[in-house]
Each structure stands twice: as C-alpha cells, then as structure tokens.
Amino acid sequence: MDPIRILIADDEPGMRTVMRKLVERAEGYALAGEAENGAQLLELYDQTRPDVVLMDVEMPEMTGIECARIIQDRNPRTVLVFATAHEQYMRSAFEVYAFDYLVKPFKLERALNTLALIRERLTAQSPKPEPVRPLQTAASGRLMLKHRDGLSFIDIPSILLIQREERSSVLYLADGGRYVTSDSLSELEQRLPESMFFRSHKSYIINLSHIDSISPYGRWTYIVKLRGTDRDALITHERFEDLQNLFA
Q1: pTM for the whole structure
Q2: Nearest to 188 by CA among 215, 159, 210, 209
Q3: Phi/psi at 210 (5° precision)
Q4: What pLDDT shows up at residue 136?
Q5: pLDDT tens sequence across 169-195
Q6: CB-count burial class (<10 Å; 0-12, 13-18, 19+) for 223
Q7: How many CB atoms are closer than 10 A to CB 133?
Q8: Of 64, 69, 42, 39, which is closest to residue 54 (Cα–Cα)?
Q9: Does 157 sit behind a cis peptide bond, omega within 30 degrees of 0 on the bond before it?
Q10: 10 touches 106 (CB < 8 A)
C-alpha cells in the first residue's frame, strides 16, 4: 500500500524539524514537502496533492485558516490538522472542519495517535456497494444542468451525491455517471427537493434515500457511506444532529 503523503507548514524552522521527525516516526507516512508560509503551502499543495496537511495557524502571507478554506474548495477530502500555541483559534479550526487541533508544545505520542487515527480512516476498506433499490416515493422531475459541452437533463432521484471539487460541483449518479458543472452547491441545493436531499457539509449534498451508515471521521466531522456507490461524503457535527432530528 502506498504511504500517506503529508505536507507540513510552519514559519518556525525548529517547529518544522519537529513536524518532520513526527512524520518519520509515524507508520505509513511519507513527507510530501514542507512550507514556511501560507503562499508556499498552497503552491506545494497544488504540486504534490497530499492526503494530509499539518500546518501552523499563524503564518506569514496567509494564515493556516485561510489556506484551509482554499484547500477544502479544491479537495474537501484532504485531511487538515492544525498545530498552534494559541487555543483561541480552535473555533476557526472547527469552522473549516479540521480533523484535529494540536496545541504547541504538543507531546509526540499525542500527535502520533492523531496520525494513526488518520491512517486508520484513510486505509479502511470501503464495503462493497449494495444494489440500488428503486425509490418508491421519489419526487418526480428532472434537473437541467449547464456545463461546457451544453446541457444535460438528469433524473433527480438518480443523483446520489454532489461534491465540490476543483472549484466545480460534481454530481455522481446511481448508474455510475458523473457530471461536472460550474453551478455552486448552494445554487443546486435550491433546485433540489428538500425532502430528498440534505446539505451535510459545505462541500457535500447527499441523497437521504441512499444513506447506509455514518461513523466518526475527525474531532468535528463524520463520514457518510451511501448505498449504490463506493464514494462517501462528510457531515459536520451540527448537521449530524440536524439529520438525527429528521429521522427522529
């Protein structure tokens, strides 16, 4: 199995050394690169496309929080971990759905436990998708989708998941189809029936009829497994509570 690629960023050389040694100690990880400021972090991110980013919050040119928002828009599945000496940033880390928040000076074992948990989540085998069952009470209607090749008309019940990727919105269908549009998730959300679709995260809309299971993913997020696809989605703690109320 390929190692998990991790990118580190901190403006203090000594702290980057600590992070580097942490990666060397962590089982199943490989260092993708290291940055000393926010702008360099984003440049390296685009070059290396790591699985995990471990970064300071306070950095020159661009903060870790600002970098996290950009990274999430490019790939919401990138695992984000913050390391900072200031606990007051925890709320901001919560808002960008960081996997964990390490307070400097953190203990090596504490950080190794975080990386081990990330490895466990990233390498977990996805269950074989169940056959798609017909939706007996699905809402009628079709969605007109604009894209660079023209227009597509999609049966709304066939949409399993909509995900934000590379500044575009990608629709995944029950038949394995995939459509890319420049429409935002908010625009698509307004055009979909509320009784069938649920905005679980700023980067995901899911079809309620296809939820199979939900399990913890990070300190503030959960992962949603969907029937009929090997793809999954993220759901925030607040939206998880809202979802529970829908099925109460």
Answers
A1: 0.65
A2: 159
A3: -115, 10
A4: 34
A5: 999 999 999 999 888 899 999 889 989
A6: middle
A7: 11
A8: 64
A9: no
A10: no
Phi, psi of 224 (to 5 degrees): -110, 120
Partner residues linked to 224 by β-bridges: 214, 233
Between CA 117 and CA 220 the distance in angstroms is: 14
Q: What is the DSSP letter of 156?
A: G
Pair of tokens at residue 145: 């989708």
Place of tokens 């290396």: 48
| Residue 71: predicted pLDDT | 92
**DSSP code at position 163:** E
DSSP states of 203-221: TEEEEGGGEEEEEE-SSSE
pLDDT of amino acid 210: 94
Distance of CA 66 to the CA centre of its chain: 16
pLDDT digits (tens, 9 = 90+) for 196-212: 999 999 899 999 999 99
- Over residues 208-240, the pLDDT tens digits come to 999 999 998 877 788 999 998 888 999 988 899
Structure tokens at 62: 């661009």
Rounded Cα distance, 175 and 134, in Å? 12
